[in-house]
Amino acid sequence: MDGAMNIFTSMSLNKVFLIGNVGRDPEVRYLDGNSAAGGTGTKVATFTLATSERYRDRSGELRENTEWHNIVAWRNSADVAEKFVHKGTQLFIEGRLRTRSYTDQQGVKKYTTEITVDNMQLLGRREGADEGQGGFQRGGGQGGWQQPSRPQQPVPQAPAQSQTYAEPDAGAPDGGDDLPF
After folding, report:
1. Rounded CA gap, 87 and 133, in Å?
2. Using one digit for the tens of pLDDT, what is the confidence trace for 65-102?
3. CB 48 within 8 A of CB 68
């Protein structure tokens, strides 16, 4: 039994799963080169993602707590973020937690915690998008991004005024959407 215990004491896991809404359009940069000048630098996209939880406080009032996450997408994930991700887009992010330090312009050492993307899926529907183009996911081992296969069925249209990126929370008394901004 002691051998089994030793296996678990040396293991570690750094895995994050998030579903939330993008807070700002991705900022895309190229490291070790400049794409505009014909360079072949590594592409990185950064943006924020908001996750919210709703709960009732002791007095029975509905409260909402929003947590903001710094997301960093590299290479192919950065390509997808640049093309398809915009403020308000609902995303599923699978990634790793990373904390790094830097020195600001005043010489003060600062720390930031980020989620490095391993897998990203677009959820919901963008306004004006064709039916059936709800999300894209990384192809298993294919290195590219593809639309998930779904049976072709007519999808009922929601009235224009209630079209949102997130399904309304069934527990919310006002039936409001889940957008944190």
Report:
1. 18
2. 999 999 999 999 999 999 999 999 999 999 999 999 99
3. yes
- Cβ atoms within 10 Å of 5's Cβ, excluding its own: 8
Does the global pTM surpass 0.90? Answer: no
Residue with tokens 């029975």: 60
Which residue did the predictor score with more confidence, 122 or 9? Answer: 122
Contact yes or no for 133/147 (Cβ under 8 A): yes
Neighbours of 126 (CB within 10 A): 16
* pLDDT, tens digit, 9 for 90 and up, residues 96-140: 999 999 999 999 999 999 999 999 999 975 554 444 334 444 433
Higher pLDDT, 178 or 84: 84
- Which amino acid, 1? M
Q: How far is CA 162 from CA 48, 135, 167, in A?
A: 25, 20, 10
* CA-to-CA separations, 164 to 23, 115, 124, 137, 178, in angstroms, rounded: 15, 26, 8, 21, 9
Task: Give the residue carrying structure tokens 């509905």.
Answer: 62
Long-range interactions of 171-177: CB distance < 8 A, separation 24+: 171/54, 172/54, 172/62, 173/62
Alpha helices in the chain (DSSP H): 2-9, 75-84
Structure tokens at 145: 């991004």
